[in-house]
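During the reporting period the student researcher (J.K.) took over the structure-prediction task from the postdoctoral fellow and processed the backlog of single-chain submissions. One of the processed entries is reproduced below for the supervisory committee.
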Amino acid sequence: MDLDAYVAEHGAEWRRLEHLTGRRRLDAAEVDELVALYQRQRHAPLRAARAGHPNRRW
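J.K. obtained the following structure tokens:
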């Protein structure tokens, strides 16, 4: 896996997550965004592993 490419691909979402989690209050749209970003990032390592091994059954 190319770590630099992985960071470049996900860095903006990580920064946005950091921003949202650092706030004291979020409006409804920001809460929805936070949940969606978290869920995408939670599964990102598994997607990356699968992409690196396309013939392997998970």
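The committee noted the following: The two ends are 18 Å apart (CA to CA).
J.K. will present the remaining backlog at the next meeting.
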